[in-house]
Amino acid sequence: MSDELAEARAAVEAARKAQAEAEARLAELQEAGIVEPGPADPAHDPAVAAAAAEAAATNPRTAEPVPEHEPPVDGVVEAPVDGAVPADPDEPAEPGAVVEPKDAEGPLTPAEVVAIREGYAFEGASLEMGALVNGDPDPETQVRIPLRMLNRHGLIAGATGTGKTKTLQGLAEQLSAAGVPVFAADIKGDLSGLASPGESGEKLLARTAGIGQAWEPKAFPTQFYALGGRGIGVPIRATVLSFGPTLLAKVLGLNDTQESSLGIVFAYADEQRLPLIDLKDLRELLLWLTGDEGKPELKRLGGISTQTAGVILRELTAFSEQGADAFFGETEFDTRELLRTTPDGLGVVSLLELPGVASQPALFSTFLMWLLADLFEDLPEVGDPEKPKLVFFFDEAHLLFKDASKDFLSAITQTVRLIRSKGVGIVFVTQTPKDVPGDVLAQLGSRVQHQLRAHTPDDATALRATVRTYPRSGYDLEQVLTSLGIGEAIVTVMGEQGAPTPVAWTRLRAPQGSMDPTPEATMRQAVDASPLLATYGPAIDRESAYEILQARLAAAQEAQQDEESRKAAEEEAARLEREARANRGSRSGGSRSGGSRGGGSVVTDFIGSRTGQTIIREIVRGILGNRRR
């Protein structure tokens, strides 16, 4: 017992000595003007208290910690320790240097962590994004997106292979669980795993436990679609008329003049009630308007040059040869089918399979834009609902904006701005924010930025531009954005009051569905069992502009043939008349009674001839209406 008492007294003396040394050092710093004079009691100075605590916490003889609640010795009570550890005790700052506290765990101070925790503590329903990373994940600080703010749109960006698709999948799963329908284009086929429960594993469970996620495998209601029936899914088709000249000009790569000319063609079709169902209808209409029969009509509408019409026809032909005919036709898809929920209240996830997107990127992106535009026209205004009616994920968004005309960009910007009031949220998924035009980017409320790479000067410029778009934070974003791991992202969203939340380095949640594609046999079974297949599966080819204009051309050709036959008959009659006069002149010296045989006339002779009989027969058929068409 006496040994322990001696050791305790030695510890107290060492603490007092350390405190005295700290006081002397503090006085030197104050005299040098480096540190402001502090409280009269040195024990209240953080540096002094920290030094005392460090000396008192260790037994100098055994180098073992002294018990935290050791009873006082000989009435001596240790001074309270309430100061912070210096930034770097082993390397004191040089005179004149500004000393800042440094968090040994991560880039954020405790106060900044608290600010992030409070910034994402929403009252209403929200989607869980993951846990804050500050050195290690902090399960107590969860990052979320308010459900009612998803119709303010969003952006998921990041380099290839950084986890964008899995982020999309995780959000789609939570939306479905909240009763919100989802639409997404499945570019690589990875999202089909939503229809199958995920597989557990040691690494997966360790990761999810580290961020506070209670993971369990789960499948979600999924409807598979295929563009024009190319792929596994219920066919989605659109008529050329509903697609419209602006979107079609984007697909065909037309310039502004050619796009205006195409608009004239659509206006004529609408005026003349010529249904433009598929591409052959549009080709036939262009041929009609640039031909002899339609030129007067085209001139009345304003006219297009032969060269412009030729360019449009060539682009249409090339477009058709790429297989685009399958995308246009009937039965046209009703976009309200995307708003379905299951009887138990889960939102249906609609996945559009796009196996050939690499060869037709413009068609893919523009077709998705048609879906949005059609939804905008059909849906009623709903104001500001507690949750969206639909969330639309626009993957590979850079394809949509590439080489887009001003009118096309204007249409996209207007749709993004106004469709929010219809209860539809749009999330663009692309590699860098610069892929999205500024006017569109300004409409996006939530951002999930995965790792960016800066291997080239252009990449470095894009990185700096991205950093400038974020609110101020405790991060060196240029450094953080290039060092994020797979499944990590920088997140900032629109809070419940409309203000942006603090920037948060987040380790994202793992999807509950399969991270591998659903087997093809399972997908085909789901498509065959879909109630939509009977409605949209068959392709219908009803009478449209092609058939109507073909009939007009046939009638015009017959009328031309009739006109040619009439002129031929008149010429033949005139010839016979001339011959008859010549014959009468040659017989003028003979007997008058020996004139025309049987007393007939020239007209009678012509009617009795074979040519006259043919003409009479054609005229009679035309009058009776039984001329072959």
Automatic annotation (TrEMBL):
Domain AAA+ ATPase stretches: 150-458
Keyword Transcription regulation listed: no
Q: Fetch the SMART domains from UniProt.
A: AAA
Query: Residue spans with biased composition (Basic and acidic residues)?
Result: 563-582
Composition bias of kind Gly residues appears in 587-601
Q: Which residues form a coiled coil?
A: 5-32
| Keywords of this entry | Coiled coil
The reply on keyword Cell inner membrane is: no
InterPro entries per UniProt = AAA+_ATPase (IPR003593), HerA_C (IPR033186), P-loop_NTPase (IPR027417), T4SS_component (IPR051162)
Q: Where is the composition biased (Low complexity)?
A: 45-65, 73-87
Residues covered by region (Disordered):
35-106, 559-606
Pfam families given in the database record? HerA_C (PF05872)
Q: Which domain of life is it from?
A: Bacteria
Q: Which Gene3D superfamilies does the entry mention?
A: P-loop containing nucleotide triphosphate hydrolases
Q: What is this protein called?
A: AAA+ ATPase domain-containing protein
Q: What is the lineage of its organism?
A: Bacteria, Bacillati, Actinomycetota, Actinomycetes, Micrococcales
